[in-house]
Amino acid sequence: MLALGLALGSIVLGHLILVPALQGDTSLVDANLARALAQPLSLRTAELALAACVVLTAVAKHWLRHNAAASLALLAAGIAGVDRLGILPRAHEAWSRVDLVAMRPQVRIDAAEQLWMIHEATLAALAVVLLALAAFASTAKPKSRSE
């Protein structure tokens, strides 16, 4: 249950609250620096989600005793791995090649926005899978002491 909470917490707190707040706060620094400062936080929260999903995959079958739960946990680990190891580094690299103050070059901005949208879609899919696992956990029968 702790791994499930850590995975959901890193998505909600890290990716949905802290990273957008840090990227959007350009009152003290310019937009390029704000995005560069948000990059390590984004990567660390993605690593937390990935680690929590891997732990969840390891314990889901024994914890929930349902075949679908183990499959969902494996799917969550796969989505988190693809996001952290594939999509997120490419999205940050694409944003690093853009001047957000001058908003140029437009072609690279469009490519970076598409990658960021894919990243957000994978986060949404991961959140849905983790919420489905939470639903399995809430409906699971308590284990008897003899098991």
Automatic annotation (TrEMBL):
Keywords per UniProt = Membrane, Transmembrane, Transmembrane helix
- Positions of transmembrane segments: 116-137
Note whether Membrane occurs among the keywords.
yes
Name used for this protein in its record? DUF4149 domain-containing protein
Species name: Enhygromyxa salina
Where is the organism placed in the taxonomic lineage, from the top? Bacteria, Pseudomonadati, Myxococcota, Polyangia, Nannocystales
